[in-house]
Structure formats: structure tokens, C-alpha cells
Amino acid sequence: MDIKSILKDEYCLDNIYIEQINYGLVDENYKIISSNGTFFFKIYNSISSFDFKKLHDDLRLLKKSNIPVPLETNRKNKTTSNHFYALYDFTEGKKYDSSINQMKSISQIFRKVIQVGISNHEKLSTKPLLFELEDSIHKLLLLSKKTKLPKEVKSICSEYYYLSKKVKEKIISYIPDKLDCIPLHPDFTERNFLFSNDSVVLLCDWQGYSHRILLDELFCAFARFCTSNPFEGYLEEKRMIEFKLELTRGNKLISTSLYEYAHLFPWLLVRKQICNTPFRINGIFGTIENRELMIKILLWSRDFINWLINNEDMLYKFLRK
């Protein structure tokens, strides 16, 4: 694909300099510097025409609610290409550094995203939560047979196999047949945020924005942002209080969900950690740097799971306050 020609012919940019940005597993990302300004150009390598249109319709809707999402720059001329790509204004910002103020800003944005999604609120089956757990355990059993796995990782596979039975029993005993589902960001993690003065100025990567179980996503957000750093330590009371305060402010659905299903908090988080494990183990077979990172995350996850189970009563009481 001739990116420079596309930028000239369709977006009427001049004096173009293109710099590839090295992130994204599937799509291609570029920083564009031109006499017209600085932009972000994205090539979507795995998207249908329907989903491409829906993505940008969703982004416009979210922008109207003051959610800092990227909007496509207007094309001056119609594309004749079979590829899917878009040019966005480039947002300058800092990465997540785990400060309390950044965390509070993330919580505020999450509340706004939920508020937008409530208009498409549905009650959907909770069976996929258990199906995903069973599928993950099957994958772990297969992975545990790989001879090149470190001993501690093989041990984790065995531990999770037996633990999954308890997790499944707990979830079945607590969870209803259906739960609230609304359209939500598919990867609400620190990787997709940029900040200025500790306030979120961009939440990106919205492909896959679709209905998700609200309760599961709420609990995962606590786990991601209420430790001292992602994949380090345990949930800290001060961070949890601030995160919950911003998240529930003026939103009855969020408050009710956290209160009514507080007993599920540790068990849905344990389920999520187990379900993420096959992906993390597969990461061990990448670069040396990736191998070290994934082993570190796996060992943290095991400790975090034990902490969640040991603090079940404390977590329940916190959400019921």
C-alpha cells in the first residue's frame, strides 16, 4: 500500500513524513508529520466493511458524551481502495504512571463509557463465563505437557486445574442465569490511555466495542487499576475507595451491581486470571524479554489469586459499604 499517495490524494496532505509506530498485533500504525499538521494513520488489517463503518459511528457517538476518543479526519476525496484505513488527529500525552489522580480520571471515563452503553442495556446469559473457564482449563492441560515450560509454570497449570473446580462451584452458586450487559471497550487497560496533567486525553483501540457483562468488566477494572502498578502487589484500600467513589458517582446501575453481587468479586477475578493464563504461557515462547515478563506476570497472578481468596470477606464488606 502506498501510504504517501493515499495521504496526498484522499486527505490532501503535503510535505509528508511517515514514521511507523511499533505497537499493535494486527493493525499497522503510523505517525504522520506534514505541513497540514501531525496525524495518526491506522491500517485495519482484520476488519469488515460493516465493522469499519460501525467503529467510526460508535466513536462519533462516544465523542458526543465527552469521551476522549479519536475521530477520523475528513477525507477530501473518496477512496477507491479495498483496504480499510483512517487518518486521525495526533494526540500528545503521557503513559499511565499509576498515580492516584490518573486512576481517578480513568474511573471517571469508565463511568461515562458505561453511561453511554446503558441506552443499549440488555440482560444476557452468564454461561459464556463458565464456557471460557472450561476452555481455558483444557488449554492449560495441553500446555502443561510442553517440555520446555519452566517448572513453576507447570506447577501453576496444575494448581489452576484443581482451583477451577472450586471457582466454577462458587460462580454457579452465586451468579444468576442472566446479568446486565452493555457495549464496552474491549481492552480497558492502561495501554490504551494517554494523559495530560493526570487527566485522560485519549482512550484508543475501540475495535471490538460490543456488549459485555458489566459486572465482570467492573471487577476487572478494580484489579487493573487498584494495585500499586499493573501486575504488581494486591488491591490497596485507598485506591479502591477513590476508584469506587468516582465510578459510582450518580450511576445507580454501577452502585447496584457492585452491592448486589459483592460476593462474586474475588471469584470472577480469579476466573479472569485463570482464563488469561494460556495467552500468558504462550508468550513465554517469544523473545527473551517477553519470556521474562510473562513469567513475572504468571507468578504475580498466582499470588494475586491466593490473596483474593484469602481476603474474600474483606472484599465483600468493602463493596457492601
List the helices and strands and how they pair.
Layout: H1 3-11, E1 17-21, E2 28-34, E3 37-44, H2 49-64, E4 84-89, H3 100-117, E5 122-125, H4 127-143, H5 151-174, E6 178-184, E7 193-196, E8 199-203, E9 210-213, H6 214-225, H7 237-248, H8 252-260, H9 265-283, H10 288-310, H11 312-320
Antiparallel strand pairs: 1-2, 2-3, 3-4, 5-6, 6-9, 7-8
Helix pairs in contact: 3-7, 4-5, 4-9, 5-9, 6-9, 9-10
Characteristics:
321 residues, alpha+beta, four-stranded antiparallel β-sheet, 16% strand, globular
What does the model show?
This protein has helices spanning 3-11, 49-64, 100-117, 127-143, 151-174, 214-225, 237-248, 252-260, 265-283, 288-310, 312-320; strands spanning 17-21, 28-34, 37-44, 84-89, 122-125, 178-184, 193-196, 199-203, 210-213. By secondary structure, it is α+β, with helices and mostly antiparallel strands. The strands form three sheets. Strands 1-2-3-4 form a four-stranded antiparallel β-sheet, with helices on one face. Helix 4 (127-143) runs antiparallel to helix 5, helix 6 (214-225) packs across helix 9 and helix 9 (265-283) packs antiparallel against helix 10. The chain is globular and about 60 Å long.
Short description:
The protein has eleven helices and nine strands.
Structural class: alpha+beta
Distance between the termini: 56 Å
What is the general shape? globular
Mean pLDDT: 93
Q: Count of DSSP E strands?
A: 9
Main sheet strand line-up: 1-2-3-4
Radius of gyration: 21 Å
- Poorly predicted tracts of residues: none
Largest sheet descriptor: 4 strands, antiparallel
Number of helices: 11
Element-by-element helix/strand order: HEEEHEHEHHEEEEHHHHHH
| Helix amount | 40-55%
Please indicate the percent range of residues in DSSP E strands (runs of 2 or more): 15-25%
